[in-house]
Amino acid sequence: MSSKRVSIWLSLLVLFSLLISACGGAAAPAAPAAPVAEEAAPAEAAATEAAPEEATEAPTEEAVSEAPAAEAAAEGDVAIRWRTRPDNQEEAGVYQSISDEIDAKLEGIGLAYEPGGSEGASYQDQLKTEIANGTAPDVFWIPGTDVADFAKRGLILNLAGQAANTEGYSNDDFYAGPMNFLTYNPETDVNDALWGLPRDVSTFVLYLNQDLLAEAGAPDPIALAAEGNWDWDAFVEVAAAVRGLGSDIYGYGANAWWGPYGTWMNAAGGGFFNADRTACNLNSPESLAGLEFEQRLYQDLDVAVPYGEDSEPPFRAGKVGMFQNGRWATPGIRTVDFNWDVVELPKGPAGNAGNWQFWGAYAVNANTEHPEEAWKLVQELTQAETQAKISALGTNIPSRVSQEAIDAFLTFTPPANNQAFINGLQDNAVAEGPLWKGDWPSYVTVMDSNVQALMTGEKSIDDFAATICDEADKTFQ
After folding, report:
1. What 8-state DSSP symbol labels residue 77?
2. What is residue 210's predicted lDDT score, i.e. its pLDDT?
3. What is the CATH number of domain 59-201+359-408?
4. Quick one: DSSP state of residue 143?
5. 222: buried, middle or exposed (CB in 10 Å: 19+, 13-18, 0-12)?
6. Best label site of 137, 200, 314, 342, fewest CB within 10 Å?
């Protein structure tokens, strides 16, 4: 990397000397600059009139990527842009540092890392728009649930050919759950494709504000879990005790997306789909039992941060006793100034916590001009040593199957109780997966809007049950 920087400085010195000699005469040649500024004005006005998300995110990403890309071009390197969707600024910093390290390692390739947008589906929607416009990065992370949608639309490369020609590569090096989905080929109905490599795995825990729990005199969830007594009833007892500390203090918080509400359904023995994932299961007695319990947290018991509000800021401000989130939240929570730890989710009527095996994949833009270089980056991003560095910084759990990786993960503190994440993954966790025989984005839109109405009291559980699958099943047609 140092040789790259030397080349840049030499190029800049030459350019600077040329500019000085060009500007040494009369000022008249500068006159044409005015029309250029006038031509740029409409673009600036358009950016101002754009939607708030586009106005704040897109220009920032372009600004981030332009300088490194220009640097790589000046040196004759292949410029590769890549993107993830960090949960917070601390996580974005983790990936930037990894990008810098890989950039220094790869010969002939110059990397530009771009942190993506919000936690919701707008991140995926923006990627689709950019791919259509020819402005998307070469490599990007997408949630596991979206792999099928991107693959069926022809937006990502099938990397099976590159993998077959890569010495030492094996699908078996990664967790079977994600790889089963990543290798499925809808055209052949067998597992002979490769739509990317899993960046990580993760699962939910409850982040605990131990100071609030102690002040409320609540039972210790970690001790209850160790005793086998951490269930829905115990969870309500702790949440209610913390809620009693004040009108602005909440016992529980979770953000409004399919992950949190899905755990309550899973823990009751229900779930989103039927067994072969070809029809809706949201109105089964078990699924409804899980959703009804969650609704009570918001409506009857009033122990939770209002549904739809981001629960992470109040948790980090010391106002929430238990915050449900994944490992990706750890870097940000490490910055709080109160005592905290984590515990696995409480067990439900089905005898388990209903947790998810979350994963996401690094995929390659189907329109990239540099597929081989992009594949090299994907491999580097998923190497054991890279994953270990990211895990050490608190962001995730390695996606490579290895007891050594698990043992190392347990040492990456805080939190002290990292075992809670491993317990969550091993407690009958459901691997999130793409919907190959349906339309996942449409399905989750139906779920989100109806669950939102349920949790805010706009819809009863009976009204939800009466219509939800009629609406959701249309996404399989």
Report:
1. P
2. 98
3. 3.40.190.10
4. E
5. buried
6. 314
DSSP 415-457: SS-THHHHHHHHTTPEEP---TTS-HHHHHHHHHHHHHHHHTT
Segment 135-156, tens digit of pLDDT: 999 999 999 999 999 999 999 9
Residue whose tokens read 């009369």? 26
Report which residue type is found at 436. W
- How far is the C-alpha of 320 from the C-alpha of 317, rounded, in Å? 8
Q: Which helix (H) or strand (E) holds 87?
A: none
Residue that is written with structure tokens 């997966």 in the block: 433
The model's pLDDT over 81-119, given as tens digits with 9 standing for 90+, comes to 999 998 778 888 889 999 999 999 999 999 999 999 755
R_g of the chain computed on alpha carbons: 25
Counting Cβ atoms within 10 Å, is residue 361 exposed (0-12), middle (13-18) or buried (19+)?
A: buried
pLDDT class of 36 with cuts at 50, 70, 90: very low
Q: Which residue has the higher pLDDT, 11 or 352?
A: 352
The pLDDT value recorded for residue 151 is: 97
Multiple choice CATH, 205-354+438-476, 1.10.3720.10, 3.40.50.300, 3.10.20.340, 3.40.190.10: 3.40.190.10
